[in-house]
Design goal:
The protein is an alpha/beta fold and 401 residues long. The protein has one domain: Alpha-Beta Barrel (TIM Barrel). Helices cover 41% and strands 11% of the residues. The chain contains 15 helices and twelve strands. The protein has an eight-stranded parallel sheet. A two-stranded antiparallel sheet has the order 4-5.
Length: 401
Amino acid sequence: MSRQSVLLRSTAGLVLGAALAVAATGGASAEAPAVEEPATVRVEAAPADAIQDAAAQRVAAMSVREKAASVVMGHLPTTDPAALQAYMAATGIGGFILMGANIPPDEDALRGVTAALTLDAAFPPLLAVDQEGGDVSRLPWDGFASARQLKSEPPAAALSAFAGRAALVQRAGIGVNFGIVADETADPASFIYRRALGTTPASAAERVAAAVEGEGSDALSTLKHFPGHGAAPGDSHQGIPSTPMSKTDWASADGLPFQAGIDAGAPLLMFGHLAYTAVDPAPATLSAEWHRIAREELGFEGVAVTDDLGMLQASGVPAYADTVANAVAALAAGNDMVLAVVFSTADTAPRMVDGIVAAVESGALPAERLEEAAERVAALRLRLAAEGRGLVPCADCAPAE
């Protein structure tokens, strides 16, 4: 696949300046000035420290409720732009995951959906999609190779496929791809086998790193499902898969693809509902120890996001029956963004926000932990503003026939 440089939207080079200008006061962004022709070069990324400073200033100006809302990723199953815009305005949440029910028949209509979800181009929400390709594919026009083929092809094939996939994601107006499965298994009976990029730790690590490189600046890559489904038999949509694997064994096996993806620069890490009982009996989503390992031992500095908290509810474990309580526990453990889809209704995100605020006010969730999470999320949102929210469609971004 040949992929020439694509054109940034006309406002893409302007939104960062607006974002940084209003960050200190937390006020509304100024309108980006109109530009008649789209730029023909990419916007250079702002220095990371400038974005971090702007994020800290913006979060410092937020109320506790605004901070709580900013770390929630919600969902509403509709393609109605008016309903989606009203949902984002009413909740003030910092992210939205697009599932199948949010995807209209064509790319132009999808851009209308994502535009409706974005109330402020200078501080866009984290719009995310599970675009792995193959078995998990929300965009039906994605014809690039999936893990089913890529696991038996050279790493360069993964780089090429995910470069094309990321272009599709970004030109639809979506900033985050929950698309890189860093789990590894050689067992065809495993539910994750068809979605894993490798059948050994080494082969998965090579392809995960290549996929992150391929997505590059077109989409914010997410590694999932940390610390890895391969060693823990079972489907986390239906229970809490567990394994007695030691941390030492994990570090030399299932941990390798995650380390490779982190080293390659993936800005998001999704924590799975998986229990490595020798490390922590709790699912990794709710484990402070697994978050410590990711940050202190693997060097991850980005946004930690939960897998769907509704899946914990669906496990049938009484301790995880309350999604709001799960959200508070997940933040306390070290997640920066909490996600709910299964069992989610229009009032799920607001209830999560209420629960987070109550936990901070009671001292159950340290205010400093919420502040840290909100700053990481804000920095990623400002990075999206710096790089442009979407790209002008181009024929040569499509997969080769």
